[in-house]
Amino acid sequence: MIKYLYCSRRIFFGSVALLSCFVIPAQAQVSTDSLLRRIDSLEAKVNRIQKQNIRPLPENRSQTRSSLESGRYGGFVVADLNNTKLTIGGFVQADFIFDFKEPGNAWAFATASIPVNNGSRGNVTFSPRQTRLSIGSESDTKLGKLKTILEFDLYNSDGSLVPHLRHAWGELGRWGGGQYWSAFMDIDAFPNTIDYEGPNAMVFVRQVQLRYTQPLSRKSTLAFSLENPGNSVRYPIDSGLSSRTIFPDVVAQFRCNLTSNTHIQLAGLFHPITFDNAADEMTTNIGWGVNLTGTIEVSDKSKDNIMFQAAYGQGISRYFNDIGGSGYDAVVKSQSAIKTIPVLGIYGFYDHWWSDKLSTTFGYSYLKLDNQQWQPVTDFKSTQYGVLNLLYYPSSFVKFGLEYLYGKHITIDDQSGDNSRLQLSMMYKF
Questions:
Q1: Can you tell me the mean pLDDT for 225-250?
Q2: The whole model's pTM is what?
Q3: In whole angstroms, how far apart are CA 190 and each of 40, 302, 408?
Q4: 265 and 201, same structural domain?
């Protein structure tokens, strides 16, 4: 419309200029030429403004889950002035869920929440909780490129639809600070599922942190981070022990991008677990972990990917998707000691693209604790997670999907509960 108006104006002023050849003296031609140059300049400015505000087409694979979680789905460039670009993006998603048995968590397929010996009573859930809004910026400064992201969704553990903070993060050059994905995890290894929760065994947590990233070569980086202090231990009231937060977690991460869609990442974690005993004396146990992850592009002629993770450690359960915050970092051994709990989390998934508009993801995930003798027999022992889906992309901004999920939860005394879920989702990006 803007182009039409300015084209019309140009025709009008051109007509005036032509008429002036007959009614205006020759010496006035200079003013007419100046007017036409100003019209050309205004038209060029309008064209630049239009290009800045047109929604660019998303990059290839921007609708996959790993791209959505890492913020590569693009957005509207609403301002691009003074070396600063402001972008607003996100998506609206509606989930229609049917559980064949009692699910535990009705909005996300959290296998650890499946009740033991659960009944075969179906459950239907409609939810818009995955809907997301992201505001990002990029600026050129004398100290390097400045990037920020502020992101919310509608998912809250209490079931409300109050906006929930996901990311509040800033980067300046090699330094970053705020709340973002832990450096111990690999968001690019998230399989292309539509379930909100994702694999039970995935190292998956957002933390407030300070991070430094050092490029080693064109394809590799080394990063270090100090992350949110704290631990996840259940201290009995009569134990005389209480949690204390004083030392931050320390993470080192090495990443090698072999190609644009193939990478390997190895991360190590030191997780101090500090507590006070009945005599108000402070003690610190050290939890630790290693996490090997990656994505492998099957062929440069297809978009198929293999995604994997193998993570092991002691006292680091709070970093795992299924049991984070459930109190399984350690178990109280006596009135003056705790024992860290070993944990293993592995998964493998395959993303297959039938065409540019149709894809399937399938895979398996397994999470297990090496339980200790001081734990109640009803405590978590292991969970399993499997998925198979069919996803359709009618345009660069829309995704529809049908997904089957299966999960099983086993306790220390070998009691179990399982559930199957069908989920239909519709996602619309903006």
A1: 92
A2: 0.84
A3: 50, 19, 20
A4: yes
